[in-house]
Design goal:
Layout: H1 10-18, H2 26-36, E1 41-45, H3 51-64, E2 77-80, H4 84-97, E3 105-108, H5 114-123, E4 127-130, H6 132-140, E5 151-154, H7 157-162, H8 166-174, E6 181-186, H9 191-200, E7 205-209, E8 219-225, H10 231-238, E9 247-250, H11 254-266, E10 271-274, H12 280-291, E11 297-300, H13 302-305, E12 315-318, H14 325-332, E13 342-348, H15 353-363, H16 379-383, H17 390-421
Parallel strand pairs: 1-6, 1-7, 2-4, 2-5, 3-4, 5-6, 8-13, 9-11, 9-12, 10-11, 12-13
Helix pairs in contact: 2-3, 3-4, 6-8
């Protein structure tokens, strides 16, 4: 199948072909006809499968076919995204596909001036791409009116759930007209997302592309068993000149990302940190430098990296092991885009073995071990564990209880910060 067979508006088709796209991806080939027929849709797809075009092209097609003369621009399409980065990425895609039509898209998000966004909204917009927090703010200020929305998209719904945005999403969706077309996309579909889909979607078409437990075949995956204190030295070995083109490194915390970027910079590598505590201007500066290859190492946290789309990324490095198996799939999916090959390295300390086991159970195979690096933990130490006596077990139980309490406190503050920057 090629794009001609999808019967898109001629101006959209011309823009797509000028960009060099002839064949739709699997999710585009399945979703676009269903959406052009007016169906609601529940799509399960990993990052890098082309899902943005899968909903953007039908939305632009419908709006491009509506008369423009004498029609004031009202918000006819709404796309909700969990992060500023993803909202901007979606906006860039709309700008590419609608550039030959009269359709106009705008992205709004937190962490930047409301005034500029309000001015642009008042000038008129067809498709509004928004993070939940900023959209609710502008709705309460009565700047944004959603009573003419014909099509609504909830993108990265599982990330919305993780960031605590689901209640905000429900408030926004309740403000939309009952008769609308709704699309929900999520990399994973846990029970809360299934429940949300039942309340928002009307007899949806269900599409699943790239099963959740199968990482992309074009990604070479390796695990480096290493002591925690040796990870920096191992990273310098992996990032030797000539060994990589560009690397996206995942750190667990914002502080850890800053510390690692500073360390690599001191070692002579052009690197930068990318996370929610950075200003919007600084984040854009770092990301643009990385995309322009003025910087070849980017250290990011998981929340900030959602929405980063870099076509020529040779390596993803899990400096800290991901804490959920789904996060592992999201991380490594940043490489091997557009048919290219990629490599995903995971630095696993003894304290992180349980995370590795959970990931391997999820993907359904043992991730190959790199046995040739200079900081390899001997196999005997990888499996050795000290027998716990009764008093030690008791102390461990108490420590575990305290840790759970602290983790709960952290989770609440994490959600508060997520709302602040959305």
């Amino acid at each position: 199948m090629n794009f001609n067979a999808l019967k898109l508006h001629p101006l959209i088709l011309r823009a797509v072909q000028e960009d060099g796209y002839n064949t739709p991806t699997p999710i585009q080939a399945q979703a676009i006809p269903a959406l052009m027929d007016g169906h609601d849709l529940l799509g399960s797809a990993q990052t890098g499968t082309g899902k943005t075009a899968a909903f953007a092209l039908p939305m632009i097609h419908r709006l491009a076919g509506m008369p423009n003369k004498g029609r004031g621009k009202v918000i006819s399409g709404l796309v909700l995204a969990p992060t500023r980065e993803l909202a901007l990425q979606i906006k860039e895609n709309f700008d590419r596909y609608d550039r030959k039509t009269h359709v106009k898209a705008l992205a709004i998000y937190g962490g930047t001036s409301k005034h500029n966004q309000i001015v642009k909204i008042k000038r008129g917009v067809d498709v509004l791409i928004a993070t939940p927090g900023r959209l609710l703010d502008l709705m309460q200020m009565r700047v944004v009116k959603l009573d003419h929305v014909l099509m609504a998209v909830l993108d990265e719904a599982d990330q919305m759930l993780d960031m605590g945005f689901i209640d905000d999403v429900k408030k926004i969706m309740n403000a939309l007209p009952k008769t609308r077309q709704t699309m929900l996309f999520s990399a994973t579909v846990p029970k809360p997302i299934e429940s949300l889909a039942r309340t928002l979607l009307n007899d949806p078409v269900r599409i699943e592309v790239t099963p959740q437990n199968e990482p992309v075949d074009t990604i070479k995956q390796e695990v480096f068993m290493v002591k925690r204190e040796d990870k920096k030295a191992l990273l310098m070995d992996v990032l030797k000149p000539g060994e990589f083109e560009s690397a996206l490194i995942f750190a667990r915390t914002k502080r850890g990302a800053d510390h690692l970027a500073h360390y690599l910079h001191k070692k002579g590598l052009q690197s930068g940190a990318y996370h929610g505590d950075k200003s919007q201007r600084e984040r854009e500066r770092v990301l643009n430098a990385f995309k322009a290859k003025k910087m070849n190492v980017l250290i990011a946290t998981d929340v900030a990296a959602r929405g980063i789309d870099i076509s020529a990324l040779s390596h993803v490095i899990n400096y800290d092991m991901p804490e959920t198996k789904e996060t592992y799939i999201h991380r490594i999916g940043r490489t091997a885009r557009a048919g290219k090959l990629g490599q995903a390295f995971s630095f696993c300390s003894l304290e992180e073995r349980h995370l590795l086991k959970a990931i391997e159970k999820h993907v359904g195979f043992k991730i190959p071990l790199n046995l040739s690096h200079n900081f390899l933990i001997p196999a005997s130490r990888q499996t050795a564990s000290k027998p716990a006596n009764k008093s030690r077990a008791k102390k461990g139980y108490q420590a575990s209880s305290k840790k759970k309490k602290k983790t709960g406190q952290f989770h609440r503050s994490y959600k508060e910060r997520a709302h602040k920057y959305a």
